[in-house]
Amino acid sequence: MVRTTPLLPGNRTVLACISVATLLAAPALAVEYTDGPAVAVPGFKSEGPGDPMGKGLAAMIVVDLVNLTQNEDSKYLDCKMAVVEWDRRDEVLKEIELSQRPEFDPATRLENRLIDPRYFVEGTVTTGADNQTTSWSLQVRDARTGQIVALDKGQTDKPLDVSGEIADRLACSLCRKGRGYSGKPLPYQNCTPALPPDAPVKDAAEPSPADAVDKARKAIDKVKSLKGLWGG
After folding, report:
1. CA–CA distance from 37 to each of 40, 175, 180 (Å)?
2. Strand (E) positions, the chain?
3. CB-count burial class (<10 Å; 0-12, 13-18, 19+) for 140
4. What is the pLDDT of residue 36?
5. What residues contact 82, with CB distance under 8 A and at least 6 apart?
6. Which of 125, 40, 134 is nearest to 89 (CA)?
7. What's the CA gap between 4 and 101, in Å, rounded?
8. Residues 39/231/193/138 CA torsion (nearest 10 deg)
9. Fewer CB within 10 Å, N side or C side of the chain?
10. Cα separation of 57 and 46, whole Å?
11. Is residue 232 part of a domain?
12. Residue span of the structural domain in which 150 resides
C-alpha cells in the first residue's frame, strides 16, 4: 500500500550515464542558467535501519528528472530543466583549482562553467523499525530567497518504485510551458504537482477516486498561485 499525494503513473527509462554540467570556460564563478529551472538533489538524510535509503532515493530521483526532461517522448521535453550534480561538486571544484596551477599546461586547464542551482530538493527518508515501510518528507527550496516552494511527503512498502512518481511531481511544480496573455509562464496541465508549502500533508485513510481527483485539482490551483518559482 502506498499512502502519498496523488500520483501519476510513469514509465522509467534508465540512462547509462547522466550529463549534468560541463567544465569548459569561465574563471571562478558558477554559471547562472536561465533557459529553465536549475535543480540540485543532494543526498537526503536517512533515519531508521535503512541508512543508505536517503542517498539511494535521491540518486534515483536525479535519474528520473533527467529522463523526464530529456527523453524525446516526455511531456517535459521543452521544460529545459538542468539537473545539477551536487554531492561531488567540491571534488570537481578542487580538480578545477588544481588544473589552474602554474605547472599545468594552460591548454589543458579546466575552467569553471558549473551551473549554479536555483532550486534544491532536500529532506529526510525514514525506514520503519520493521524495515518494511519507507516514508519521505521532501521540500523544494529556492536558493535565492530561501523560500520553500513545494513539498512532497508519503509512505510506501515499495521504496524502489516511487522515485519516478516523486520526480514527476517535482517537474510538474517547477517546469513552465509557454506564456499566457499576461506574459507569465504557464504551468503544465497534464500532471500532478508537489504540494505547495501551505497545504496540510498527513497520513490519512485511502481516499476515494473522487476525493483524489478533487485534491489534485486543489493542489494544481494552489501551485498556479505560488510565487518564487522559475519565471513566476
Report:
1. 10, 7, 19
2. 3-4, 31-32, 38-40, 45-47, 82-84, 115-116, 119-127, 134-142, 148-156, 176-179, 185-187
3. buried
4. 87
5. 20, 21, 33, 35, 36, 37, 38, 39, 115
6. 40
7. 51
8. 40
9. N
10. 10
11. no
12. 3-224
| Tens digit of each residue's pLDDT (9 = 90 or more) over 14-38 | 333 333 333 333 334 567 888 889 9
Q: How many residues does the chain have?
A: 232
Mean pLDDT across the stretch 113-134?
A: 88
Q: Is this model's pTM higher than 0.70 or not?
A: no
Judge whether residue 72 has pLDDT over 80.
yes
Please list, in sequence order, all residues whose beta carbon lies within 8 angstroms of the beta carbon of residue 120, skipping any fewer than 6 positions away: 39, 40, 41, 42, 86, 140, 141, 143
Q: Which amino acid is at 119?
A: Y
CB 135 within 8 A of CB 218: no
Tell me, yes or no, whether 186 lies in a domain. Answer: yes
> What is the tally of structural domains in the chain?
1
List strand residue ranges (DSSP E) for 56-118, in order. Answer: 82-84, 115-116
